[in-house]
């Protein structure tokens, strides 16, 4: 099974939005998908519960207390696992997930506080043996961006100097708040209104699809 870990040391960075959208996309493509909710707030779990009646339902798996037990509880038929890591966690708190992940996605918002917190998190992540050996890919997602602002452009310029690639730039939109509350994602809709938003995700999905 392919496993994607969505992690950030800064609360409110957009982990749940990214984790639920990646899970929804995989399920809509016909993959048997599990969403491990390792965050005590359990927002991803509630999203999956609201989605339960859909054909593209996602299996919620509690993972906030015992990570090893959560991993072992995954059905053998699972094809895609998305892990919503706990807010504030550093690499040393993510041992089980870092051992099993195929990729780590790190959301970053355009603020000094978010950038500083992310630098600290990435420094701890860089010390993990799998990251050091190049076995575990790490990608940054510039989240809640407003491309027309100096702050967003400055953030992208700064991220371009970091050792990990920016694999997507997601625009700021209240639609994400609404969708999470409904148990839905942008990928559940085909209207012209959401196509531009869906296009924001294409680079990230392509990066995750690489072997």
Automatic annotation (TrEMBL):
InterPro entries xref list: CobQ/CobB/MinD/ParA_Nub-bd_dom, DNA_Partitioning_ATPase, P-loop_NTPase
Taking the record's annotation, the residue ranges forming a coiled coil are none
Which Gene3D superfamilies does its entry note?
P-loop containing nucleotide triphosphate hydrolases
Q: Which Pfam families match?
A: CbiA
Domain CobQ/CobB/MinD/ParA nucleotide binding residues, every copy: 5-176
Q: Which PANTHER family does its entry note? A: COBQ_COBB_MIND_PARA NUCLEOTIDE BINDING DOMAIN-CONTAINING PROTEIN, P-LOOP CONTAINING NUCLEOSIDE TRIPHOSPHATE HYDROLASE
What's this protein's name? ParA family protein
Organism (species): Luteimonas colneyensis
